[in-house]
């Protein structure tokens, strides 16, 4: 019985250590819900991130939650970063949302799947101040050249920034 209590305490300490280490890695993590789960092409999702660390390397992720109503196997997004001193970087990105057999990628046990997609890898934000991240969907069906139809099934869009663990 004494051995079981010791093992139980060790597991609690181990889990606590993992939680502390993993919490320190996340610098920023926010989501914005998409109204009616219909992401219009002109509905930019924006995040303001205050940077106070000009030394540490970070990974930046675009997080997208979708449900079974999402009708494509990929998603195209236009991601923009506005730096505190005015510089702007714009990227057009494509991410896989299903595997080759049509099964949803991402995590989740319900019909909602969460995809954590690499955006910027191993970067240092060298300017102090507020960075503005904006994400716009650019996915089109063959009959929607101008992007008039919203993307159905996108429930939330987010940004997460994590310190790279050494």
Structure description:
Helices cover 14% and strands 46% of the residues. With 166 residues, it is mostly beta strands. The strands form 3 sheets. It has a 4-stranded antiparallel β-sheet with strand order 1-10-4-7. Strands 3-8-5-6 form a 4-stranded antiparallel β-sheet, with no helix packed on it. The protein has a two-stranded antiparallel sheet with strand order 2-9. Strand 5 and strand 6 form a beta hairpin. The longest helix is centred in the N-terminal third of the chain and has 24 residues. The protein starts with a helix and ends with a strand. The mean pLDDT is 87.
Features:
166 residues; 1 helix; 4-stranded antiparallel beta sheet; 14% helix; mainly beta; 46% strand; globular; single chain
């Amino acid at each position: 019985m004494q051995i079981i209590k010791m093992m139980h305490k060790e597991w609690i300490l181990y889990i606590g250590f993992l939680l502390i280490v993993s919490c320190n890695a996340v610098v920023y993590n926010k989501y914005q819900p998409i109204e009616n789960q219909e992401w219009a092409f002109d509905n930019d999702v924006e995040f303001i991130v205050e940077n106070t660390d000009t030394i540490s390397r970070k990974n930046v992720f675009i997080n997208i939650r979708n449900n079974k109503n999402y009708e494509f196997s990929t998603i195209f997004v236009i991601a923009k970063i506005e730096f505190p001193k005015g510089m702007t970087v714009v990227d057009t990105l494509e991410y896989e949302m299903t595997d080759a057999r049509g099964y949803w990628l991402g995590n989740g046990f319900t019909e909602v799947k969460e995809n954590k997609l690499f955006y910027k890898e191993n970067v240092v934000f060298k300017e102090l101040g507020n960075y503005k991240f904006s994400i716009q969907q650019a996915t089109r069906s063959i009959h929607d050249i101008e992007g008039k139809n919203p993307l159905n099934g996108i429930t939330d869009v987010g940004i997460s920034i994590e310190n790279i663990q050494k």
